[in-house]
TrEMBL record:
One of its GO terms (cellular component) is cytosol. GO terms for molecular function: carbohydrate derivative binding; glutamine-fructose-6-phosphate transaminase (isomerizing) activity. This is Glutamine--fructose-6-phosphate aminotransferase [isomerizing]. Its EC number is 2.6.1.16. It catalyses: D-fructose 6-phosphate + L-glutamine = D-glucosamine 6-phosphate + L-glutamate. The lineage of its organism: Bacteria, Pseudomonadati, Bacteroidota, Sphingobacteriia, Sphingobacteriales. Its main location: cytoplasm. Catalyzes the first step in hexosamine metabolism, converting fructose-6P into glucosamine-6P using glutamine as a nitrogen source. GO terms for biological process: amino sugar biosynthetic process; carbohydrate metabolic process; fructose 6-phosphate metabolic process; protein N-linked glycosylation; UDP-N-acetylglucosamine metabolic process. It is an enzyme of class 2 (transferase). It is found in: Cytoplasm. Keywords: Aminotransferase, Cytoplasm, Glutamine amidotransferase, Repeat, Transferase. The active site is at 362 (for fru-6p isomerization activity). Residues 43-182, 216-357 form the SIS domain.
Length: 367
């Protein structure tokens, strides 16, 4: 049932070209520049006139939500808040009937997320569920929604559910932007076209980078700490990279916005600290290059996710994981894939049960 793979986690990482494709299928029509999402249509007016979009989630799903904040604000010009469900439910948040809550959950059963939307619903908010498991509690509680079509995710560390969430969140943002007319046709077409290329590009990364990433994993498997840095659209990916490493390797890892390192974490940097930069070509590129130089000046070891053809970062970094170049808004869905593989192989090198890390449950149905 692992389909020839040693672990579910690896199988699920390699399924991503298909699961992303399945999540876009019948929804994204790049050729005719059209997005079909009946769940969005159902609450279209609410979304277009929303006072705020509040994204509620936990863990990896929260990271997907954080990226969605950047994307929805950029494309739709709607205020977005991203909330840890556990915090949101226990404070007394100000919610009105002009708020749309997007609950992001693979399992659809996460207790904190479920109660958070239950409370928000009582206060009049409209609930949109972005869920993988069909018929789950969060799906049933929602006023409208869209299923990610990632298929069953068995590995406790979430991989394919995350990229499916991103694919759907991009579609939602693009559709709302189009309806609200906050995006011009050229950018809309470009992003649709790039999104359609993602399954093939993920396939290319898996085929072309797997061997190199195994080597990198061997080199760094004994490290005690990792720092993950990224800016802008890549910041949520730095957080997700760090979480994945913690879960499956038990190595302490922290994700930070790259510019924040000066405000504390840079004190950790010495020749024993691997620093992973999510450094694909984007509008912040020069800034991240100078952040990399600052780490190198302090003898930190730099592992970078770079865009194909980027000799500047490749020249500075000790090790690179290469991804195809694509629009900066879409790039994070590619950047996360090498980080998933890196975590997996480091966990394997350390002889751990990557599919069932200690202390973790696949779905957290108690608080
Ligand atoms: C991380 C992981 C967890 C889940 C979190 C939310 O790899 O699996 O952090 O993302 O427990 O779960 P769902 O998405 O099922 O609500």
């Amino acid at each position: 049932e692992k389909g020839g793979y040693d672990h579910f986690m690896l199988k699920e990482i390699f399924e991503q070209p298909q699961t992303i494709f399945d999540s876009l299928r019948g929804r994204l029509d790049a050729e005719h520049q059209h997005i079909t999402l009946s769940g969005v249509d159902k609450i279209k007016e609410k979304l277009i006139h929303a006072n705020r979009v509040i994204i509620v989630a936990c863990g990896t799903s929260w990271h997907a939500g954080l990226l969605a904040e950047y994307v929805i604000e950029e494309l739709c010009r709607i205020n977005v808040e991203v909330e840890y469900a556990s915090e949101f439910r226990y404070r007394n948040p100000i919610i009105t009937d002009k708020d749309v809550i997007i609950a992001v959950s693979q399992s659809g059963e996460t207790a904190d997320t479920l109660v958070a939307i239950e409370n928000a619903k009582k206060q009049g908010a409209t609930i949109f569920g972005l869920v993988n498991v069909v018929g789950s509690s969060i799906a049933r509680m929602s006023d409208a929604g869209a299923y990610t079509h990632a298929g069953p995710e068995i590995g406790v560390a979430s991989t394919k559910a995350f990229t499916a969430q991103l694919a759907l969140l991009y579609l939602i943002a693009l559709k709302v932007a189009y309806e609200k007319q906050t995006i011009d046709q050229t950018l809309f077409n470009k992003l649709l076209g790039d999104l359609a290329k993602v399954p093939q590009y993920v396939q290319d990364i898996l085929e072309e980078q797997d061997a190199a990433i195994q080597e990198i994993a061997r080199k760094y498997a004994d490290a005690n700490d990792f720092l993950y840095l990224g800016r802008g659209f890549n910041f949520p990916i730095a957080l997700e990279g760090a979480l994945k490493l913690k879960e499956v390797s038990y190595i302490h890892a922290e994700g930070y916005p790259a510019a924040e390192m000066k405000h504390g974490p840079i004190a950790l940097v010495d020749e024993n600290l691997p620093v992973v930069f999510v450094a694909t070509k984007d509008s912040y590129h020069e800034k991240i290059v100078s952040n990399i130089q600052e780490i190198k000046a302090r003898k930190g070891q730099v592992i970078a996710v770079v865009s194909q053809g980027d000799n500047v970062v490749a020249g500075l970094a000790d090790d690179v994981m290469v991804v195809p170049q694509i629009h900066e808004i879409i790039a994070p869905i590619l950047s996360v894939v090498p980080l998933q593989l890196l975590s997996y192989y480091i966990g394997i090198n350390r002889g751990l049960d990557v599919d069932k890390p200690r202390n973790l449950a696949k779905s957290v149905t108690v608080e």
